[in-house]
Amino acid sequence: MRRFGLIGRPLGHSASAKHFSAKFEREGLTDCAFELYELPSIEALPELLARVPELEGFNVTIPYKREVMRYLDALSDDAAKIGAVNCVRRSSDGRLTGHNTDIVGLRLALDELLEGSEPEHALVLGTGGASQAVQYALAERGIAFDLVSRDAAKGNYTYDNLPVEAVAESKLIINATPVGTYPDVEAAPRIPYAYVTPDHRLLDLVYNPPVTQFLAYGLQRGARVLNGERMFLGQAAAGWKIWNE
Predict the structure, then answer these.
(1) Active-site residue 23, yes or no?
(2) Rounded distance, CA 149 to CA 103, Å?
(3) Given 18, 23, 65, 154, the catalytic residue
(4) Tens digits of residue pLDDT in 184-222
C-alpha cells in the first residue's frame, strides 16, 4: 500500500483526507491511502516515519511548516527561498525532500481574485509559514506589502497599533492566519473593517468554513473576496505530482 498523509495540529478542519480519498476512488487507485497524522510536536515526526515505513509523502500544515525543515535532507528552490515547507517527499532510501506547493496554489488564487488588476499595496495578516509563501507570491508580482502580527518584533504593525490608513490604502488584504477556522467560526482578525471598500480584494487562506467571518465582513463592505479552496486544490495537485515524479 502506498501511503500519504498530512501532519500538523489540529487537523479537524482539514479536507485533505476527503479530497485524496475521493481522488483515489475516482481514479481507481486501490493501492493508495491518505491519512491525517496529528502530531503533539514536530519531535514526534521520526517516530511516525519509523511506524509507517510505507509513507511516501506528506503535507505539512500549521504549526510545523518551518519546524519540519530541521528534519529534512534537502529543499526545493522555492522552499529554500520561502523558508517554509508544506509538502515532503520520502524517497525509497528514506531521504526527505521539502517542497513548498503553497506558492503554486497562491499564484492561482491571486490570478482568480485580482483578474489582472494588480494593487499597489497589500496587507498580510500573520507572519507564520503560510505568510512566508504569501510574501513570496506578492514579491513575484511586484506588490509591496506590510505585515500585521501579534508580535511587534515580527511585523510592521500589531493588531493593536494598526492604523486605519493602512487598511484603507491596502486594496489587497490577505489573512494568512488560522483565525476563523472551524470550529472557531465566529472569530476574525482584529482589523478596522469599516475602512474596507468595494475597491478592496480580500483573500482568506482558510477554506473551512467557505465564508469565514473575515470574508463576511469584506462582503458587507462590498469587497471582492476569495477563500482558500482554490489555493488548497492547487497545492494538492502540485503535491501529488511531486510524490509521483
Answers:
(1) no
(2) 21
(3) 65
(4) 999 999 999 999 999 999 999 999 999 999 999 999 999
